[in-house]
Amino acid sequence: MKITMAHGSGGESTSALIKDVFSKYFKNEILDKLEDSAVVSGSSKIAVTTDSFVVTPLVFPGGDIGRLSVCGTVNDILMSGATPKYITCGAVLEEGLDIDLLDKIIASMAETAKEAGVIIVTGDTKVIENRGAEPGLIINTSGIGFIDETKESVGPYNLKDGDKLIITGNLGDHHAAILGCRMGIENNIKSDCAPLGDFVGKLKDADIRVHAMRDVTRGGLGTVLNEFASASCCNIELSEEALPVEPSVKEFCGLLGLDPMYMGNEGKAIISVHKDDAERALSLIKSAKYGENAAIIGEVIKNNKPDADNNVILNTKLGGKRIIGLMYGEGLPRIC
Question: What is the pLDDT of residues 271-281, one digit of tens each?
Answer without folding.
Answer: 999 999 999 99
